Structures are given as structure tokens and as C-alpha cells.
Amino acid sequence: SLVLGIETSCDETGAGLVRDGVLLGEGLASSADEHARFGGVVPEVAARAHVSAVTPMVRAAVEAAGVSLSDIDAVAVTAGPGLSPALHVGVAAAKAYAAALEVPLYGVHHLAGHAAVDVLGHGPLPDRCVCLIVSGGHTSLLALGDLARDPVEHLGDTVDDAAGEAFDKVARLLGLPYPGGPSVSRAALDGDPAAIAFPRPMTGPRDAAFGFSFSGLKTAVARHVEAAQDAGRAVPVPDVAASFQMAVVDVLVRKALRACAERGADTLLMVGGVAANRVLRTEMERACAGAGITLRVPVPRLCTDNGAMIAALGDLLVRDGVEPAGLGGTAVPTVPLTGATITFPPATG
Ligand code: ATP
Ligand code: MG
Ligand code: FE
Fold first, then answer.
1. Who's near 297: CB < 8 A, 6+ residues apart?
2. Is the pTM for the entire model greater than 0.90?
3. 135-180, pLDDT tens digit by residue?
4. Which residues form a coiled coil (predicted)?
């Protein structure tokens, strides 16, 4: 079957068309430029951009795939988590397509979509694996079974900031543009990752084995920047960026490898926007190779938000015969990752 996926949880408007694990077409627009001067995503601005972009992106996906709307057999949409006004645009659009085309609608969890997208590049997921999700709003180590059906087991989550959030906040501290991940990693190219010994939070023997904490690291960067300014020295932006980046990477690599060892996992799936980071990919690959673990990471373009990931997950659900949602619900801005689908709460009133 041909599955249309729609993603509008943050500032990317994405549409994707997937059939049997193959990406046929995509449309992707971003309102990131409109948020840049605010240093972060403004929900109402993002929602308006989704309203303008959502049907053109679906049209772009349909044209790229060389199909017509009437060929679509099911629609999947990010139902949560995300920015409330942004999510509602995608959910409303997806309902309209599903109703007009008389096809089933799946409300899916955005983070499960981040994981599912790897199927498009690397084929079916193994029966079980450890998954590291590193995104703008989440950082978790998970034990995954069948992504479409099985409950997701959380081995550990961040107790404060997500890894991507730390990149975004450090970018602001260093006067680098939003989104912070790409700009910090670009600045880091000219820096020395060993220049500043930033802390590696939660890696001590008495810390929660698979928990993360990145807010203290951000504070350490802030203190370093302030100290330089107070002393009338120029902030060594490339060195700070490179040293911060290496601290994050070091923590993620250590914890992910520890989780794989504990669970006896031979595959590590690394997903989410921060998984686009070049140094993280290189260091994780090196560590996994040394430990005999197969590392699966989507191509960088598919790590950040897009419609293909939601279509990929919808395709898994359809092929697994999972029951679709009705058309009577609304988006759920805050929802933990317990499984692939989200039951839409009925609209009240
Ligand atoms: P979530 O998926 O948790 O709801 P989100 O959808 O906003 O959050 P993603 O699109 O998955 O997040 O990822 C965006 C995040 O990834 C941002 O914090 C961004 O700074 C970070 N990011 C993107 N590219 C890179 C990179 N090359 N290096 C580091 N971080 C990056
Ligand atoms: Mg984004
Ligand atoms: Fe995301």
C-alpha cells in the first residue's frame, strides 16, 4: 500500500510517500529562517508557516513520486509530541486527506518516526535493538522490539535538557545562529576538542546508568564564556564549540555502548536531529566497530524532522495490520514514547 506521511510538530513541514519500505517522494519546507531572529521556534509563527506549506508539500511529494492523490491507501500524521498549534495543522490536514480519500488515518508518535525512518535506507529493523534518540527535545536510550507493535522500553532519559537543546543553547551563548546544532558543529571545525575540559555529566559510577543531563554542561560553557568576557579576552568560539561538542559526543558514546553491553544488543540504532552530527557519527561508528556492534544511522538529511519518517512508520503499521485511529481526535502536545501509535483523545465539547 501507498502511505502518505505528514509531519508538522515543530518548524519543518514535511510530507512523504512510502510503499513497502521504499521512499517514493518527499516534500519538505522549513520556517527556521523566520525563527532565527528570535533564537528559537515561535509556535504561532511555525503554525502559520505549516498552514501555507502543508498542501504544497503533499503536492510536491505526490509529484516527485509520480503518483496521484487517489493512489494513497493510508495517511499517517504526527499526533505528538510537539508544539500544540503546529501539531494541530498537520492533524487537521491529515484528517482532511484521509476523509476525502476514504482511507485509514494513523496518529503516530514523532519519536517513533525518527526511528522508523532508518528502514528507508537500511531495510527492516532487527527483531530487537538498542536505540539512542538524540533530538531537539529528547534524549533517551531505548530497548526496541517490533517498532509497530511492541511497547518501547526506556532504559534512560535526560533529567533536564536534551542534547539538541544543549547545542541550541550553547549556540546562543556563543552568538551563533539558530538552529544551534549545525552552527556549533561548523564553528567546531576550526577548534580543538581537547582545548577545554568540560564536564561529562552523569558518567560517574554512582550516576543513573542510562540517564543523561546536559544542563550542567551548558552552564559550564556559560561560565567559560563569562570568564573570558570578564577578563576582557575574546571568547575562543571554535575551541569552546569543539570542546562542548566532544563532551556531548563522549557522554552519548559511553552510555550507548554501556546500554548495548548490558542488553546484549548487537545493533545500535541512532536517530534524531543530533544524529546528523558528523563527529557523533564518526565517534559512535568507531566505538561500535571496536565492540562488534552494528551501528545504524539514517543519512543526515533524514535525521532531522521530515515527512518521510512519518510515512515510513505509517507503512510499518499498515504492513503489521495495526488498527488505525478514527477521525474524531486531536493532537497530543505532550506524550511519552510508549509505542508507535498515539490514540487521539476525542475532541471535547
Ligand atoms: P524532537 O524530535 O525531540 O521533538 P525536534 O523535532 O525539534 O525535537 P529534531 O528535528 O529531531 O528535533 O532535531 C533538531 C535538533 O537537532 C536541534 O536541536 C538541532 O540543533 C539539532 N541538530 C541538527 N543538526 C545537528 C548537527 N549537525 N549537530 C548537532 N545537532 C544538530
Ligand atoms: Mg526543526
Ligand atoms: Fe524531531
1. 118, 269, 270, 271, 275, 281, 284, 303
2. yes
3. 999 999 999 999 999 999 999 999 999 999 999 999 999 999 989 9
4. none
* d(C-alpha 344, C-alpha 254), whole Å: 37
Q: Is 110 known as a binding-site position?
A: yes
**Per-residue pLDDT reduced to its tens digit, 18-28:** 999 999 999 99
CA 82 to ligand 1 centroid distance, Å = 13
Residue 54 assigned to a binding site = no
State the distance from the centre of ligand 2 to the C-alpha of 4, rounded, in angstroms: 20
Set of cell numbers at residue 276: 546528523
In whole angstroms, what is the distance from residue 34 CA to residue 230 CA? 33
Question: What ipTM goes with this model?
Answer: 0.99
Residue 349 assigned to a binding site: no
Do 217 and 168 touch, CB atoms closer than 8 A?
A: no
Place of cell 575562543: 236
CA 287 to each of CA 44, 264, 282, 312: distance values in angstroms, whole numbers, following the listed order:
42, 15, 9, 28
Ligand 2 centroid to Cα of residue 12, in Å, is 5
Residue 206: per-residue pLDDT: 76
List all residues whose CB is within 6 A of at least one atom of ligand 1.
Answer: 9-10, 82, 110, 114, 135-138, 164, 167-168, 179-182, 185, 272-274, 276-277, 304-305
Place of cell 511555525: 46
Residue to substitute in 28, 170, 251, 305 for testing ligand 1 pocket (most ligand atoms within 8 angstroms of CB): 305
Mutating to test ligand 1, I would choose from 7, 9, 10, 337 the residue with most ligand atoms within 8 A of its C-beta, which is 10
> What is the average per-residue pLDDT within 82-87?
98
Angle, CA 240 vertex, CA 239 and CA 245 arms, to 5° = 100
